[in-house]
Specification:
By secondary structure, the chain is mostly helical. It is built from four helices and no strands. Pfam families: COX17 (PF05051).
Length: 78
């Protein structure tokens, strides 16, 4: 059903929904992340985005939560 046209396009509603920057993302201890949000956790981000594109957000909650955990562990407040 037209999936071939959307295969090369990342899910903008997901990746653009988290416009975190190093200036606004800090841990409770005041420690800033070592990289920008767009560069953090590429493995979990890639798996999450692919799952959402192929299966829909409601079917990828475990991968979404895994990416959130990775981002928090990297120092982002999400």
């Amino acid at each position: 059903m037209g999936n071939s046209a959307s295969q090369g396009v990342a899910a903008p509603s997901v990746s653009a929904a988290h416009p975190l920057t190093t200036a606004s993302a800090a841990t409770a201890s005041g420690e800033k992340p070592k990289c920008k949000a767009c560069c953090a956790c590429p493995e979990t981000k890639r798996a999450r985005d692919a799952c959402i594109v192929e299966n829909g957000e409601e079917n990828c909650l475990a991968l979404i939560e895994a990416h959130k955990k990775c981002m928090r562990d990297a120092g982002f407040n999400i």
